[in-house]
Design goal:
InterPro entries: Peptide/Ni-bd, SBP_5, SBP_5_CS, SBP_5_dom. Belongs to the bacterial solute-binding protein 5 family. Pfam families: SBP_bac_5 (PF00496). Keywords: Signal. It is found in: Periplasm. The chain is of the alpha+beta class. It folds into three domains: 9-60 and 186-268 and 482-507, 3-Layer(aba) Sandwich (D-Maltodextrin-Binding Protein, domain 2); 62-178, Dipeptide-binding Protein, domain 1; 271-481, Roll (Dipeptide-binding Protein, domain 3). The protein is built from 16 helices and 18 strands. The protein has helices spanning 9-12, 14-21, 52-61, 109-120, 129-133, 158-164, 232-241, 252-259, 294-303, 306-314, 343-352, 369-381, 393-401, 421-428, 439-447, 454-471, and strands at residues 32-37, 66-68, 75-77, 80-87, 90-95, 136-143, 146-151, 195-201, 205-210, 223-228, 246-248, 265-279, 360-365, 385-390, 407-412, 474-486, 490-491, 506-507. The strands form four sheets. A ten-stranded mixed β-sheet has the order 8-9-10-1-11-16-12-15-13-14, sandwiched between helices. A hairpin with a 3-residue loop joins strand 8 (195-201) and strand 9. The longest helix is centred in the last third of the chain and has 18 residues, at 454-471. It is globular and about 70 Å long.
Length: 508
Amino acid sequence: MSIPRWRSICAASAVALAASFGPAIAGPADDTLRAAMAEEILNLDYNYTTKREYIILAQLTDATLFDLDPATQEFNPSVATGYDWVDDTTLDVTLRDDVKFHDGSTLTPEDVAYTYNWIASPDSESNASGVVERWLDNAEVTGPNTVRFHLKSVYPLVLRDMSNRIMLRKAGTYDAGGTIDRNAMSSNLIGTGPYKVVSFEPGTELVLERFDDFFGDKPAIGKVVVRNIPDIGTQQAELMSGGIDWMFKVPLDLAESLGATPMAEHLSGPDLRIGFIVLDAHGYTDPDGPLTNLKVRQAINYALNTEEMAKYLIGGSAEAIHTACHPAQFGCDQNVTAYPYDPEKAKALLAEAGYGEGFPLELWAYRDKAVAEAISADLTKVGIDVDLRYVKLESLNQARAAREIPAYVGTWGSGGTADTAAIARIHFSDSDRNLSGDEALQELVLSAEQTADQAKRKAIYSEAIGKIADEAYWAPLFSYSANYLVSPQLSFPLDPDGLPRLQHASWK
């Protein structure tokens, strides 16, 4: 199968525009890094948000108990200096005594215990609650610089959750005086991170300034301005005219075109996000439907030219995958059944399953339209009559929750966590994303979170990923590539987990 390399109008005009603008004027003259984000920034409190944009901002404004090294996947001290497992369900954490909030006050163990107990409380209604409530019973202050965490049961990913999700707040932040205010930090954020908020116009602009009392390594750049610019063409023009220095989620064609000019540098790095097709193997939409037949699901896998999709539609460091997890994730065993591109074998399997003349398939998708169309074309070639339903994510989520979707094209970034747990629990436990109906698989996946023995966890995930492949519950597609355009004067290091860390940027 040959996949055309689509070129958007803005990409086609990139070189011409670059020539008309001349050399970019963006630079370090005022020591201000200007970044563009298409998604509206409406709430600065990551305890009450999701999405990649908010993770990026939280890394600028907040600090967590531990830091996860994206290269080694080791947990390093941050606000915490160390930890000690008293027993399997009791964790003691020791804190630094020099951590300052942006208002100048010193962080205390009471602040840490309050933050975790609040997030775990039903009253919080926090977006982070689901992460904490599954393992935290309560947190208590045990000394002038220590906090004890009591777990509900054995849970091996506590340090990961402490590193990735919970942003520390002053005691009483959300319920001062007995009045609950979940938006207390949405605009006037008081964090402990390397940058503090100077001004914020929701949906328009956020201005951050280096926090001189930050306890860790100070960022090289003094000020960061984040502008909401929904249109990618406008972002492009701003980059070329010097209005911004950094843009991400850049379409490959635009990144390559503009990156070939003196106006910008194209950076491409790995991303833990993967693409896949989820198949209704259980038969929620049709108890006797074709997708309940293993040979049909295997045929769908064989029919897809994932290598060309990765190369031409995603590009950069993207690669075809054959597992229901990213190859870089802990426990993502690569020695499992693979289905290389073989349309003739796909046709033979369909015939064996009794569908030699094909069958109609409603395929849902919400992003990467060119990918969805390529998938449809591949399946059509082997005789499957695809009805592609390209919808908004909200519509897909609602239909999936109602069990009305036989197959859909999905992606998952695992929050930048290089552990199979970050994808397996969501997609193969008690979630509407799990269309396998395989209760034994569900129990297997959850059992990996009931042991702190890493060797046992690895073996469990290996077994689970192997079963998913053998049963073809998914049709894995490819890993993603992170594409950026930056000012030629900006040095922006790329990390292996694909999460942009603007706090590590510097001027050349």
